[in-house]
Amino acid sequence: MNEDMNRTRDARRVIDEVELEDYAGRAALAEEPAGPGDTGHHDQYAKFTHDVPEQTSEAASRVLVRLVPVAYGLLLGGLAGSLALGLAGGALVAMLLDLRMGAYSLTRDLSRRILARVCPAVAAVAHGLVLVVRRVGLKVPAALANLRCGAPLP
């Protein structure tokens, strides 16, 4: 029993000495004079060995530009009580922002594919509508009368 108490005392003495040395070492560092421009505070941060490629960061920003309006639309739709309306509004804003991306626009490519299939039907309906409007005796707008698929007529 007495032996255990001596070991405990010795262990505490060693711990106290280590803590005292550690405190003395920190105190000595704190007392060192700072050089010109040295604030005494050293930031610690992760040092990355590589940067993100520019194409990757641009692609990530384009994804954010497309998704953030949809997320906000859903949030506003939830507040207004109509998630479908919020989703539609957010999707519309996302599509408009996407169209401004030029060559990187997904909406522009998608709309070209859809219009290639839908345009002949729309042109046929427009042609029939032009005939009905002319029979009634009303003036037909030029854009409606000249609607064709493919390249516009001069």
Sum up the structure in keywords.
154 residues, mainly alpha
How would you describe what is shown here?
By secondary structure, the chain is mostly helical. Among the domains are: 56-104, no CATH class; 105-154, no CATH class. The protein is built from five helices and no strands. The longest helix is centred in the C-terminal third of the chain and has 31 residues, at 106-136.
What does this entry show, briefly?
The chain has about 150 residues and is mostly helical. Helices cover about 70% and strands about 0% of the residues. The mean pLDDT is about 75.
What structural class is derived from the secondary structure elements? mainly alpha
Largest sheet: none
Q: Calculate the mean pLDDT score and round it.
A: 77
C-alpha geometry: rod-shaped
Please state roughly what percent of the residues sit in beta strands, choosing from under 5%, 5-15%, 15-25%, 25-35%, 35-45% or over 45%. Answer: under 5%
- If helices are DSSP runs of H or I spanning 4 or more residues, what is the number of helices? 5
Write the element-wise H/E pattern from the N-terminal end onward. HHHHH
**Terminal Cα separation, in Å?**
109 Å
User: Segments where pLDDT lies below 50 for 5+ residues?
Assistant: none
Q: What gyration radius follows from the Cα positions, in whole Å? A: 36 Å
Fraction in helix = over 70%
Described by its quaternary structure, the protein is single chain
Tally of DSSP β-strands? 0
